[in-house]
Design brief:
The chain is mostly helical. The chain is built from six helices and two strands, in the order H-H-E-E-H-H-H-H.
């Protein structure tokens, strides 16, 4: 009897749901953005001597990294929201930079490479959020059809 009770309380790795695509992406990109921010602060005007940055740009990366990490460890819905917000913010920064809005390019020390990278990130975040939303709905539908009436 006691043996069966211990089995009931034991949760195997098969019982745990797999980490969602949005949560995985938020965690990985959170670490990457935080590391780029630190490199920007330490490296001064260039990250690894390759791309120009400034303290405001590094602060943007740090806040993005911390937000993504928080969302990635909070839950799937928070991670999807972080992807949508990241896509909106970085897409807007990229578009404004390419449009030649001097206030944005000067404040963040953006060059054309940063602008295109930010647009690519925005498209990637939209894809991640959309795929994760679709997978979440299909998991929900699958669970709903297995429930007894």
């Amino acid at each position: 009897m006691q043996r069966n009770a211990s089995r009931m309380n034991h949760t195997s790795t098969q019982d745990a749901p797999p980490i969602s695509f949005a949560r995985w992406t938020a965690r990985v990109l959170g670490v990457v953005f935080a590391m780029v921010a630190v490199l920007g602060y330490v490296g001064g005007r260039d990250v690894l001597g390759l791309v120009p940055t400034n303290p405001a740009h590094s602060t943007l990366h740090l806040l993005t990294g911390l937000g993504l990490l928080l969302a990635g460890f909070t839950g799937e819905a928070a991670s999807r929201l972080a992807c949508w917000l990241g896509a909106l913010a970085y897409g807007l920064i990229g578009l404004l930079g390419l449009a030649g809005v001097a206030g944005v390019t000067a404040a963040l020390n953006l060059n054309v490479a940063w602008m295109w990278l930010y647009l690519a990130l925005a498209i990637g975040w939209i894809a991640v959020a959309g795929v994760s939303q679709s997978l979440a709905h299909s998991r929900y539908r699958a669970r709903a059809t297995r429930r007894p009436a």
